[in-house]
UniProtKB/TrEMBL annotation, chain B:
One of its GO terms (biological process) is phosphate ion transmembrane transport. Transmembrane segments: none annotated. GO terms for molecular function: ATP binding; ATP hydrolysis activity; phosphate transmembrane transporter activity. It comes from the Bacteria. Residues 5-246 form the ABC transporter domain. It comes from Bellilinea caldifistulae. InterPro entries: AAA+_ATPase (IPR003593), ABC_transporter-like_ATP-bd (IPR003439), P-loop_NTPase (IPR027417), PstB-like (IPR005670). SUPFAM superfamilies: P-loop containing nucleoside triphosphate hydrolases. Keywords: ATP-binding, Nucleotide-binding. One of its GO terms (cellular component) is membrane. PROSITE patterns: ABC_TRANSPORTER_2. This is ABC transporter domain-containing protein. The keyword Zinc does not apply.
Amino acid sequence: MNTAAGWAKRPESRTGVRKQRNRIARRLFSISAGFIFLVLFAIVTMLVQRSLPLWQNVSLPDFLTGRVWKPDQGLFGLLPFILGTFWTTGLGIAFALPLSLFSAIYLAEYARPLTRTVIKPVLDILAGIPSVIYGMWGVLVVVPVVQTTVAPLFSRAFPGIGLFQSSNPTGFSILSAGIVLAIMIAPILIAIMYEILLAVPVGLREASMAVGASRWQTIKYIVLPKATSGLIAAMILGTSRALGETMAVLMVVGNVAALPRSLFDPAYPIPALIANNYGEMMSIPLYDSALMAAALFLLLIVLSFNILSSLALRRMLQ
Amino acid sequence: MAECISIRNFNVAFGNTLVLKNIHLDIPCGQITAIMGPSGCGKTTLLRSINRFLELSDHVTIKGEILIDGQNIYDPQVDPIDIRSKVGLLAQRPFSLPMSIIDNVAYGLRIHGMADGKDLHRAVRHYLEMAGLWEEVKDRLREPAVRLSIGQQQRLCLARGLAVEPEIILADEPTSALDPISAQNIEQRLLELREKYTIVLVTHTVRQARRLADYLVFMYLGEMVECGEASAIFSNPQHELTRAYLHGAIG
Amino acid sequence: MNPQSRLRRRLARIEETAFLFLMRLALISVVMILGWILATLLIKGMPVLSWELISQPPQGGYYLGGKGGILNAILGSLYLAAGGTLLALIAALPVVFYLTTYLHQKTRRAALIRLALDVLWGIPSIVYGVFGFLIMLSLGLRASLLAGIITLAFLELPILIRGMDEFIRTTPEELVQSSLAVGATPLDTTLKVISRQTLPGLITAVLLAFGRGIGDAASVLFTAGYTDHLPTSLFEPAASLPLAVFFQLGTPFPAVQQRAYASALVLTIIILVISFISRWLISRFNKYLVR
């Protein structure tokens, strides 16, 4: 580079201009960074403000524990939707967790370099597929399978257990939503868990194997205990993704606002509630306010999950 | 002189780079053999081939034989786990396992089902004593091992390795991460252990080799240049490169 | 070796084999599911995909099985995502510059900004939809291309900044210091050294954000609306591909549902193309970078 030579000949005034420009840029850029916090702040405050009218007519406990949602009668009980959200999310995580953990362990500990280079784009593509596509695939593949095969099978196999009894003839159900959700969050979970496992120092693995432990013993006694908090953080992150997932779930879950009793019952998660009713919410008093309160409830849960997992993951991966 | 480890026509490549070229070497029993050479000469690679650690890396190709007690450890029939129980490793930096002091020492014993209950405690004490750590940790055996100082941790790693009763101890620059006093302590242990074990030590300092080695191997760019009795090589190196290295002209 | 420890060894090996089997099974299922999804899309969508479908907007009676296509949604989606990405880029660049130029990697302020960005990234798109909707109301807009673009810009902003930030952080510290060492200001360093070094990374982040924007339905549902007309004005509603899939799938007519499959195929192809371009860019430019 000849910058050094040119620099020496440069007159003082040019230097001053450059320094000045640097200072101004710094000021401007730091203001723009504040914009990030402004957005976060604005999202929360706008939702709070918009949901305020509701609290003059409905108390918070009634809102969160009420079982009846009839906006035209002024009844706003969110419980069916809360349960719908937790059921679908819980099921999604329950399916995704073993799938992701096993895959991530294999990739980090056993897979050959070639396998890794093949799997990476597969995960990227899976993570990039839009949720309506997952939803459509769920409608075309998962829902019929649940309807014609899984539901009858479970009803017959476990006659006494309510959880597995199907009174829903359609297949649009919590189970379908859980399966679709699991497939959607698995690629994200695998990618993060893989990184967490790689962050466990090679020296620890070698220390274990040097005394004659097998790979699996090393994983079981050393790698997994060491990575536990990171893996939990990854799971929380996956949960928060699943909690907010809208379109794919909405398309396969049935959208019936009742308390679900069985895996084969339809449900109505909060994101679906918001998405389905934005059109009419302005025509009924307090409806918009109640929907904003529901969105706020969802947001606060997701935010706290996100903060928790981001902090934990950052510490793990540094 | 009896050889414990015989290395025959041994070649190692990472990808397309040949790291060890046709190594032919006998390592004597019950002595400290020091492997010296400038960095990048393949001395750590050679060490890691003796407990079959090389195959943990990607893209590695291994050719040739290493015989321990007459058995080729690269025979496909051989389980690397057996080799690693027979050949202990003391790494460059101490890696305490994320568990208590006592569990660190007991780790290998439990894995192999070698001791339990009262036996286990007695065994742990025995190996901690051998590593010269017992007096310092006897009241805090249940504490996490990472609370120990680096030097103590390295001795803990030594005890952990000794506990599975190996015949051979590989030491990969075991003092390079330690303060001088801890380093001296480790050197002392190695000298004490020499009578019962065959020790292969990779070292980057000529002075350490002078202090510890009975037998000396000098390597340069993946090839073994010279080997023999330490005293003989130090007083009269046969090869120009060895002479230059010992006088500090290279490396 | 005594018999007891031999038994122990054998049990351990059986355990490892069993878990290895489960792990391979898990990984293979993940790959197969991707194959299954793509195969479903192709099998269902390919027969319906036609030049008419992608070159025309819906004609009369389209949603009853009449003539026409989804050009409105294709164009609408491209406009929405392009506009959203452009707007997000304008807002993102100064933040990226600030993060990389003036803050050292480990400062608390940088960590705080990155945390906020990660948190923003995790906010569900439905919430961005609601947020965009409220902004739209307060600006006195109605559901329109512009409102959709603004909403998508918010959605894409954290993806864009974090994506660029991650790439720039791979710049070797020495490169930055060698520029500072010859007396360049931090601003000069960023503009002349880092930006050149990380350009492919920046383009990749833009493509990633674009892909996220074009595929998102929940955020434009509220804000962009839907129309059978081709988008002509920022203040008119605009159709989008994800919503085209969603609405057409929701009709009771098989002929229209099939068009949903074809629309889904078009959307997926767009996203795959974007993903391949960015992959190609990375592998191509990686060769020229100082690492």
